C-alpha cells in the first residue's frame, strides 16, 4: 500500500527472526560455470505444487513454501525486494494508483507498479531433504549451553552423522558454479578464500549488502576448530574482504558487520559480511561472533574455542537439541 503524506502511526509487525540461509543451486551445464549460458528468464516453478507454508513474516515480507517439483520435495523462498532510490522516478511515473481512503491531508492508495519494479526474489531448494523442510518451519527455539566437552561428546558426533552435502561449496571454490558472481578470489590454499554475494542479497542496493567469504581450507568445520594457527587465514579474510567490498561497493570498513555463526548453517568455515544497520538474519548476539573478537580471543588464548562455553539457539525439532536433552544438558 502506498500512502500520500505521512501516516500518523506505523505499527510494528511480528518480531520473528527467520533463518533464510537457503542452499545454493547445484551446478550443471546451465548454471554458473565459466562458459555457462544461463537463460535470462526461465520458469522452474511451472510444475511446482504447494504442500504447505512452512513460515512467513509480514515484517520481512518473506514466505517459505514446501512443495513438489516433479517427484522431488522442494522449498521455495519468496521475498519482496526493497524499493530502490534510483527507481523512484520511474515508479512514480509508471504506476497506477487506486484510491482507498481520503481523510483531510491523508490519502491511501493501492499502487500497481510496473512489473520490473515489482519483483519477488525467489530461491529454490530442490531436491530438498527433511532437514531443509524442518529448518524453515516456524517453531519454538531453546538456548543451549555447550562446553568444550559437550562439543566433543555430543555436538561433534552428531555433525559427523549428518549427510548434508557440501558439494555446492566446492563448486563455488572450483568455479564450477557462480563464477560470474565472485567479488574476490584468493587462491592460496592456506589463507585463501572466495568472496561472493549471498543468495539473500539481490545486489540492487547496498543497504542490505550481504556477502559470504568461503575459505579454501576444507578441514575447518566451525568456530570450534579454530586455533591460533588459523590467525593468518582469519586476518587475511578480514582485511582482504573489507578491501574488496570498499573497491567494489564503495562501502568502508566502518559500515560493515563481519562475523561467524555458531552453530553455522553448514559445516565449512565461512564468514558473513553485512552492512551495519541491516538487520540480517542470524546477526543477533546468541548466534553471531564478530570476526575481530574471534581474532583477539585466539591471540590471547591459542585454544580459546576448544574449551570456551558457547551458547546458541536450537529449534524444537532439531536433532542436536534432542541429543543435549538425552545427555541431561537441557
TrEMBL record:
SUPFAM superfamilies: HIT-like (SSF54197), mRNA decapping enzyme DcpS N-terminal domain (SSF102860). It is found in: Nucleus. Keywords: Hydrolase, mRNA processing, Nucleus. InterPro entries: DcpS/DCS2 (IPR008594), HIT-like_sf (IPR036265), Scavenger_mRNA_decap_enz_N (IPR011145). Its main location: nucleus. Signal peptide: none annotated. Its EC number is 3.6.1.59. Residues 1-32 have a biased composition (Basic and acidic residues). Transmembrane segments: none annotated. The keyword Nucleus applies. It catalyses: a 5'-end (N(7)-methyl 5'-triphosphoguanosine)-ribonucleoside in mRNA + H2O = N(7)-methyl-GMP + a 5'-end diphospho-ribonucleoside in mRNA + 2 H(+). Residues 1-41 are annotated as: Disordered. Decapping scavenger enzyme that catalyzes the cleavage of a residual cap structure following the degradation of mRNAs by the 3'->5' exosome-mediated mRNA decay pathway. Homodimer. Associates with components of the exosome multienzyme ribonuclease complex, such as EXOSC3 and EXOSC4. Interacts with NDOR1. Belongs to the HIT family. This is m7GpppX diphosphatase. It comes from Characodon lateralis.
